[in-house]
Amino acid sequence: MRTQVAIIGAGPAGLLLSQLLMKSGIETIVLERRSREYVLSRIRAGVIESGAVDLLDKAGVGDRLHREGHVHDGCNLAYDQQMLRIDFKSLCGDHVVVYGQTEITRDLYDAQDALGANIIHGVDDVEIIGADTDSPYVTFKHDGQDKRIDCDFVAGCDGFHGVSRQTIPDSVRSEFEKIYPFGWLGVLSETPPVNDELIYASGPRGFALASMRSPVLSRHYIQVPLNEKVENWSDDAFWDEYRKRLPQSAAEALVTGPSIEKSIAPLRSFVSEPMKWGRLFLCGDAAHIVPPTGAKGLNLAASDVFYLWRAMSAHYNDKDGALIDRYGEDALARVWQAMRFSWWMTRLMHLFPDDPAFDQRIPAVEFAHLQNSETARRNLAENYVGLPY
Ligand code: APR
Ligand code: PHB
């Protein structure tokens, strides 16, 4: 087989890149390890930056998001029961849209079907060969047969545990990582949200987040120790602890119900440089991981895809290779801004019980500054809604 761009991974990054490239007349083949059903079963975040919404519109997959998504003009921080609303609209004239990421993946699959995309599921043993040459190719197994795709470029959209990042030699790669000493225990329930906007709550018992997918589907998180096990948490135990961490108004509004999904996710900040090596380009979680506090995971994948789509369109359609050469620098500039913000918001909102007393004192001071300074609130708002591409 031969194509112009071989894409590894059919998550949000891979599917969005394939959709944008195909709409620009560029051929792709997408290789996905899992089944389509598995990819669509993953519960992921739901806050979409307006820049990512614009990109989804350019990809022709924004219709249902605009119909069913909910525009949020602000979010709330609660610190020791004090609520502070961050008004995106008045502070920076922007907003976010709450729309399940699984729905975005579903919309992308439907759009790729309509374009006749070549997405091969159930592949194994993917290997990227000759990425540092002018004739790269990808080998893999499918239905027990050895396969090969010759291509011009390879896009590594295969997530944190994929093969693409590891293809870049250790001697070339630099990794930057921070592991946080806690995880997030998340619950999905078919109950109304406690509030019409998200509430990030911090207090003496730890962090909690009240989020949602729709007026009848809510998403809830609490900070738990790194070694915590999900089987230690009955629904009742979760709701009891969650209620204690929410500000009183939200705790009183809480409607509990059976969890339809319950899991614990670790938190890490991670960046691998470079994001371009020869004719291999990393996008999304293949290159970086953010703690979910800043709701940046999917949104960073979207900006990586934007820079790569723009670069490849210039290469193929305008015979201009300058943006291809700059892809890594362009993508990393925005990645590191989101890394900083996600790290900052994670430190602001979580307990770090093993930190020195001085460090543990600072979040309350940060929160007081946010209460007293419109400039501080504007800085938070600009980063939360997403810095420009
Ligand atoms: N071969 C083929 N496919 C692979 C391989 C491999 N060796 N390794 C991983 N994959 C597939 C996974 O099965 C997954 O479907 O690559 C895809 C990667 O998707 P994600 O992990 O969702 O990563 P990405 O597309 O970058 O999404 C970025 O969106 O998923 C949310 O918030 C989440 O931060 C994440 C963001
Ligand atoms: C979610 O709804 O899953 C969600 C929302 C905001 C975050 C993280 C997760 O910062």
Tell me what the structure shows:
The chain contains 13 helices and 20 strands. α1 runs parallel beside α10 (297-317). β15 and β16 (217-225) form a beta hairpin. It folds into 2 domains: 5-72 and 97-177 and 268-346, FAD/NAD(P)-binding domain (3-Layer(bba) Sandwich), CATH 3.50.50.60; 180-267 and 351-385, D-Amino Acid Oxidase, Chain A, domain 2 (2-Layer Sandwich), CATH 3.30.9.10. It has helices at residues 12-23, 36-41, 50-58, 63-68, 88-92, 101-114, 164-167, 235-245, 248-253, 297-317, 322-349, 357-372, 374-385, and strands at residues 5-8, 28-32, 47-49, 70-72, 74-79, 82-87, 96-98, 119-121, 124-129, 137-142, 145-150, 153-156, 174-189, 199-202, 208-214, 217-225, 259-273, 276-277, 280-282, 288-289. The model has no long low-confidence stretch (mean pLDDT 97). The chain has 389 residues and is of the alpha+beta class. An 8-stranded mixed beta sheet has the order 6-5-14-15-16-13-17-20. Strands 8-2-1-12-19-18 form a 6-stranded mixed beta sheet. Strands 3-7-4 form a 3-stranded antiparallel beta sheet. The radius of gyration is 21 Å and the shape is globular. P-hydroxybenzoic acid (PHB) binds at residues 45-47, 198, 211, 219, 292-293, 295. P-hydroxybenzoic acid binds at residues 45-47, 198, 211, 219, 292-293, 295.
